[in-house]
Each structure stands twice: as structure tokens, then as C-alpha cells.
Amino acid sequence: MPDAGRVVTGSAGGLRLEAPGPGTRPFSDKVKQALFSMLEAEDEHIWDHPALDLFAGSGAAGIEALSRGAPAAVLVEKDRRAVETIRRNLEWTHLADAGRVVRADVLGFLDAPPPEAPFGAIVLDPPYAQAADLLAVMQRLAADAAAWLTDGGQVAAKHFWKDAPADAIGSLERLRQRRFGETALSVYRRGVRQ
């Protein structure tokens, strides 16, 4: 069975996750650890709020947020096989009660915030070939940031290093960026003054 790395820490720390299969690009443990460290460096209370995992793949980001104490997570993925994998991973980590899986196109999902909103953290991990989707999603989130993000809430984007989003997208301002070979992480925060 393909592997999507392990849950780094928290209630499910150390458990290995299943990957949906060929064609997916799961977070490596190193990148996942760096991403969550970047989010927590900006707000030690970030997991007091629900998390949103867009282009969820194996569900690794949403599961990591739940393992670290987020009260709920919404994991959005359009691929049927990946959705089944996410559900198995939530069961395996004993986090299924707090994780809600939505099978949908991400841009369609963003038509209206779900009941769990606003989120403390939103993680985006679209396929590298869909760089335009990353920008479109960030613009959609920025357009109604107060509905999607808590004051000071963060959006973390995993992307091909050459396709870095702008320093500011609407009310979202980049705080940090790190590169790991061809992969880069950009973390944005919603300004508290809208």
C-alpha cells in the first residue's frame, strides 16, 4: 500500500497514513513538520479553531491538525479514490468523529463557508499542474476572508517553487516562505483589520 508519511505529533503521532496511489504527491514528513511549525510559530492557539484541508489527497494536513488538537477539520477532495483513502486514514487515526470529508471540486466548495467556519488554518495542496487553481482559491478566500478565517487566521499553500503566489492577495499577506527542493510553502495571514 502506498504510504503518505506519518502523523508528526499529537494524539495520532507516529501513525503512518495510506496514500491514494499513483498521481498523488503527499506531504513528506519533513515538509509537513515544517508547515505545522510555521503555522504554530505565528499563533500558539491556532488549533483552538477548526481547520480546512483543500485538495486533501490523503487527508494528511487535516489529520495532523486534528491530532494536534483542532476541534474539527473539513477535508475537501474531488477524487473518489482519495476520498475513500481519507476516510480510512481518519478511522485508522481514531479521528473520524472530528473530521468531515467532502467530495467536491474545491472552487465549487468555496461558494459558501461551511458550518465549521471560520477556520484558524486552511491548507492548500493542489497538483503542481494546477497553479492557476491555487491563485483562484486564494483570491476566493481573500474576497470573503472574515467568513473563512478567524482574526489572524492563516492560509498555508504548498506549491512548485517557481509558482509562488504574490506577497499579498487581497486581505491575505504572506508571513513566511520556505523551499524544499522543488516544493515550497507559503504561509499567509488574514489581517485583523479588514
Using brief descriptors, characterize the structure shown:
alpha/beta; two-stranded antiparallel ribbon; 6 helices; 194 residues
Question: How would you explain this protein's 3D organization?
Answer:
The chain is of the alpha/beta class and 194 residues long. It contains 6 helices and 10 strands, in the order E-E-H-E-H-E-H-E-H-E-H-H-E-E-E-E. The strands form 2 sheets. The chain has an 8-stranded mixed sheet with strand order 5-4-3-6-7-10-9-8. A two-stranded antiparallel sheet has the order 1-2. The radius of gyration is 15 Å and the shape is globular.
Layout of helices and strands:
Layout: E1 3-6, E2 16-18, H1 29-42, E3 51-54, H2 60-67, E4 73-77, H3 80-92, E5 99-103, H4 106-109, E6 119-124, H5 131-143, H6 145-148, E7 149-160, E8 168-169, E9 172-180, E10 183-190
Parallel strand pairs: 3-4, 3-6, 4-5, 6-7
Antiparallel strand pairs: 1-2, 7-10, 8-9, 9-10
Would you kindly provide a brief summary of this structure?
The protein starts with a strand and ends with a strand. It is built from six helices and ten strands; from the N terminus they run E-E-H-E-H-E-H-E-H-E-H-H-E-E-E-E.
